[in-house]
Amino acid sequence: MAYVLIPAVIFALIILTAYICYRMAFYSPDRVPIGPDEYPIPDGEIYEPFREQMVAWMKETRALDRKDVSIRSFDGLTLRGYFYEYAPGAPIELMMHGYRGAAERDLCGGVQRAFSMKRSVLLIDQRACGRSDGHIITFGINEHRDCLSWVDFLNKRFDSKLPIILTGISMGAATVMMAAGQKLPENVVGVIADCGYTSPKEIIQKVIRDMRLPPKLAYPFVKLGARLFGHFDLEEFSSIEAMRNCKIPVFFVHGAADDFVPCEMSIACSKACAAENVLLKVPGAGHGLAYLVGPQAYADAVAKLNFPSAEN
Predict the structure, then answer these.
(1) How far apart are CA 72 and CA 63, in angstroms?
(2) For residue 303, what are the contacts with CB-CB under 8 A and spacing of at least 6?
(3) Packing angle between helix 143-157 and helix 171-180, nearest 10 degrees?
(4) Is 185 exposed, middle or buried (0-12, 13-18, 19+ CB in 10 A)?
(5) pTM over 0.90, yes/no
(6) What count of Cα atoms within 13 Å lies in the side-chain half-sphere of residue 255?
(7) Separation between Cα atoms, residue 25 and residue 14, nearest integer Å
């Protein structure tokens, strides 16, 4: 009897551990809508010095004219966003936020930055985040397919010759990099990747190390949880693989003091990129804070790629 019971117990423990990993890494419960007087900023002490600026940006963004937009994802989810028009016919930045984030929280300053560069903005909530449907975050695997669907939405809604720039921060940067490795419409002309990671596998292994757990032991359970309960393959695609196939210019920017997604990951993606690219490392900037810490350096560096604006 024990010969039957022991393997069954081991199997049950493997499945249970995989499920716990799935819930911790990938599952997103129902989100509570943000109230009109709420201005959430990311968790962590590094963001506190910038709270006043981030709240001011959120207030400014909410005061702008915007249009609610939505699409249906390839797997039947309703994904939602806001469109901010700088001027009719202006190029558009399609912006994607980070892991467990939301468009307004992570990218409100992006709207002001894009407007300063004479571009309109499509600010979206990624699947399982913010106002969009879903409960499973896939670290860019399914999200990059959503990015391509949003490009298709823009080309159906506007002139398909209108330039589009794919912009993302953290997981959003990985998402747009993965999208850039696919066949794109000709009017997708560039990528802005802020503090993105090389692959879902490598960033998850890094987080496991931060938790003082052995990645070689723990990661297989995370991968199994993604496959069994999230129904996706964590290693199906990666940012660095996509960059080897990229054909459009990429602006990589990363805080040199980022202790969550190491700056070395953007360096690796830049070295792998087959297309023209510029890499900016911002001294003293933590995760997602490159633009806040070095706005002028950011503007000067991205200008080297001559991405289109309303005037060119």
Answers:
(1) 27
(2) none
(3) 70
(4) middle
(5) yes
(6) 20
(7) 16
Residues in Cβ contact with 45 at an 8 Å cutoff, skipping those fewer than 6 apart: none
Tell me which amino acid residue 145 is: R
Neighbouring residues of 202: CB distance < 8 A, sequence distance ≥ 6: 238, 265
By CB atoms closer than 10 A (0-12, 13-18, 19+), residue 198 is: buried
Of 256, 46, 165, 276, nearest in space to 266 by CA: 256
Express each pLDDT in 139-180 by its tens digit.
999 999 999 999 999 999 987 889 999 999 999 999 999 999
Q: How far apart are CA 225 and CA 127, in angstroms?
A: 18
Identity of the amino acid at 29: P
Give Cβ neighbours of residue 112 (< 8 Å, ≥ 6 apart).
Answer: 57, 60, 61
**Please, are residues 120 and 57 in contact by the beta-carbon 8 Å criterion?**
no
Q: Return the amino acid letter for 28.
A: S
Distance (Å, whole) CA 182 – CA 34: 34
Identify the H or E element spanning 71. strand 67-72
Quick one: tokens of 289? 């804070």
